[in-house]
Amino acid sequence: MGSDGPFTTAQLELIRSQPALAAPPGVIANFDSPSNNNKLAIAVIAVCMTLTALCAFVRAFTRIHHLKRMRLEDSIGLVALPFFVAGTWILGTIPQNSGLFVHQWDIRVKDLETFIYDYVRITILYCVALMLTKASILVEWVHLFVPVSRTPFYWICHGMIWSNCCLYVTTIITINLTCRPRDRIWQRYLPGACIDIDAFNLFITAFHLVFDLLMLLLPHRVIWKLSLSTQQKVGISTVFSVGVVTCVCAAGRVVSAVMMKASSDATYAYSRHLLWGLAEITTAELVFCVPAIPLMLRHPNVLHRIRAFVQSRMPTRQSRENISPLHSQHDAQPEVSGREDPMYKYPWTDGNRDVNLAEFQLGRSRESHTSNHLEVRPKKYQGGILRTTEIDITHDY
User: What is the pTM of this model?
Assistant: First the structure.
């Protein structure tokens, strides 16, 4: 009979077919169709993937179409996306295998191996994605708030960048070296030794929460010292307050880490921890991409043109003084000379429609054949929009 490590093949198959955890008193294990929350997990995964894709599109669109340049933070954020997609893809395959939010006593040891192995891979990929995303956020803040000299804000951001990288690199190394041999991380029946990874998770998630809170507060100190109006400061501060959601997700991970430490039901507790991690990285992408949304809305685009088209079809409010001359002399040909005539003022309105200017011809004034000034003779004024004027005003600070 062959052997596989310290166990024979028959012994290994027997071990892997056993329940992964003893069921609580009065509970009967259900290996065939255990209860789960796969539908909820798939919905969360779909929402997070959609939000991240939209944010990445907005960021790329504003950089390529409007600004027409890419900076260092854009490249770093672009590198982070494949790690996020890969980790989320693996997370999406778990419901097809062991399932998410399944109690450990409802699965076998071989299913637990697959779940823990996927958990390790997802955690590593998410750590890389979060490391790069937070670094790109801080690099962008340096470009935004430190235009010339190296202020204390510059050094704080760079210190946080390197601390962030060291923190996540340490996390990745620790996860990979949790057990000796490494296979014992997901095959706990192998002989060897492991550190208390649950205690490490609790420590590292609490550290991440503190880091996220510092990132939330950091730009506001600079924003409220800018030479702007209070309304502008509130608007900019609101954009940079999206990080509140990231802090909430980081706090959720801390709570889930506490439950992981207190519970022996690893599959259920780890499922909660994975979804909070997915939410945290999604909101970090929002923090990175949300400042690009006002830039996109400020430039002409499809949404802006649709809004202008709708506004052009809305009725305009005209005063009685401007309307009465037009109705009282409906068939008259108004004359517009070099001098401003108060009797014939047209209600110019803003919109987005084409006007056939060929109907407007130049002619001589009928009152004075000796004068050389020109007049505009409209065919007949129908109250439509004559011209659209759009002005973009941009302030750079």
Answer: 0.72
